[in-house]
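Internal ticket - ligand job 151, fe (ii) ion:
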Amino acid sequence: MSREQILEYLNHDLRSELAAIEIYSAHARALADDPLGEGIRAILEVEQRHARDLTARIRALGGTPAEPGGLETVTGRAVGAATAHADPVEMLRLELAEEQQAIRDYATQIAEILDDDETVELLTHNMEDEMQHARWLKAQIRRLSGRPSPA
Ligand SMILES: [Fe+2]
Ligand SMILES: [Fe+2]
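stdout (structure tokens):
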């Protein structure tokens, strides 16, 4: 796989992370006084680290990282704002959908990249974080929808 293809993956991931940061920021503000707020803020900090690490890796490979403020930021901000007045379960579902897509994207890229272990390590680390986020979000959705936890 070419360096250009890897940079394309990394910038795709970075743009998704920038959108996620906007969504989580809006929801963290909306749920500031809710018990969920703390968990959302903790996830937000991890997404900010993902964006920083992806930016650094893109630079290390000689690429140009997507900047905050682009289309994804604007879209993420709009989605975050539009859903900040929704039921908390709806916010969690939207966040879960973002995490699920990130897990799929990272897994595909990890499977495809043959010759860049350092990038694969970074993507694996990020994917594991997203899996942890998805697990927490699913547990909150179950709890708030009154569904029993799996044994
Ligand atoms: Fe992330
Ligand atoms: Fe995440």
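Auto-summary: The CA atoms of residues 67 and 118 lie 22 Å apart. Residues 43, 47, 99, 129-130, 133 surround fe (ii) ion (ligand 2) (CB under 6 Å).
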